[in-house]
Amino acid sequence: MRAITYQEYGGPENLRLTDVPDPKVGPGEVLIRVKAAGINPVDWKLAGGGLDPLMQTYFPVIPGWDVAGVVEAVGMDTPEYAVGDEVLGYARKDYVQHGTYAELVSAGVRHIARKPAALSWEQAAGLPLAGLTALQALDRARTSEGDTVLVHAAAGGVGSLAVQIAVARGARVIGTASERNHAFLRELGAEPVTYGDGLVGRVRDLAPGGVDVALDFVGGVADDSAELLGETSRLVSVVDGRAVELGGHAIWVRPNPVELTALADLADAGRLTVPVERVYPLAEAADAWRDQQNGRTRGKLVLSVS
């Protein structure tokens, strides 16, 4: 099969389109013919060696953890799925080697769910990691109806989904973004504020009493968030350990098929969409990484595989 691989730690320049053996399909797994693969910052952070202390890596590596495609084969004792089923998944293994930037990928049933009909293949591929991150952050902060939620980096891949999930729960959402993305956030149901110096004052102009929940998807905003939260500890970050020092939580997204199904159901109910800024052919994965590293992406970047 064709796949994007890298042979050593480094940047986008190390990515190559190569031919590699088809993956094996173990018990409790399915083989997915990949239609599209989502791109996430963790993909190029892994490739740069940034998570080497945490995860065992075996070269050559096929990057990617997000996938949408069609079940091509099922492993032993896998009654949940059949050949031809359309699925999406957060196909993160316990080691780094066999990812989703490929024509085929194997994934355990704990990593996948049925694809929502309301989403295109590209949208479905952008949902798993970002959607689960957003959902698990909201859950860790005990977000419920009537809360005022501050979402940092609300126009990004995770933030744009967190806004929609929070709105679906009946929360009021204030989202930080550059001014060029304010109209986009209003469409998602958030009240936009510009990030940067003076953020606390701008948020208090909208919510004089502060906020109930703060979700950090960018880093460097823990102190501002804590000031706006007051005595509560409902700060959750995916990038900044300072959140824990301030009484909040730092999370690392986990595969969860029940939660992934819940996200798919929200999409089919018309309450969640996946903004996709650009779709790249598989061979242009390096260009996609460079564009995402520029830090100005609205929503998701996705690879079209087949």
Automatic annotation (TrEMBL):
CDD domains: MDR_like_2. Gene3D superfamilies: Medium-chain alcohol dehydrogenases, catalytic domain, NAD(P)-binding Rossmann-like Domain. Residues 10-303 form the Enoyl reductase (ER) domain. SMART domains: PKS_ER. SUPFAM superfamilies: GroES-like (SSF50129), NAD(P)-binding Rossmann-fold domains (SSF51735). Coiled coil: none annotated. GO terms for molecular function: oxidoreductase activity. It holds the Pfam family ADH_N. PANTHER family: ALCOHOL DEHYDROGENASE RELATED, RETICULON-4-INTERACTING PROTEIN 1, MITOCHONDRIAL. This is NADP-dependent oxidoreductase.
